[in-house]
Amino acid sequence: MIRSELIQKIADENPHLYQRDVERIVNTVFEEIISAMADGDRVELRGFGAFSVKKRDARTGRNPRTGEAVEVEEKFVPFFKTGKLLRDRLNGNESD
To answer: Which of 1, 36, 56, 62 is most open to solvent, judged by the fewest CB atoms within 10 Å of its CB?
Structure first.
């Protein structure tokens, strides 16, 4: 599912809201998650999962084409850990 499909689905399920308002809400939620992660904070959505940032140390890598050693700088990467509810649902263990 892409962002526009998410916006359309929410708008369809909530006919009392204008699509432009739904789009603004979805964009605000995503921006807040991105902003929190950029500040190094963890974002937890109960039942869905948690977004966090992990630091990868600098290392010596290899160019796959030439095999030549390449220095890779330290960097921060996004990390997502699924929540128990999502994991159970994906594995068919729903208990509704």
So the answer is: 1
10 Å Cβ neighbour count for 22? 19
DSSP result, the chain: --HHHHHHHHHHH-TTS-HHHHHHHHHHHHHHHHHHHHTT--EEETTTEEEEEEEE--EEEE-TTT--EEEE--EEEEEEEE-HHHHHHHTT----
Q: Which architecture, in CATH terms, is 42-84?
A: Irregular (4.10)
Instruction: State pTM to two decimals.
Output: 0.77
Per-residue pLDDT tens for 17-73? Answer: 999 999 999 999 999 999 999 999 999 999 999 999 999 999 999 999 999 999 999
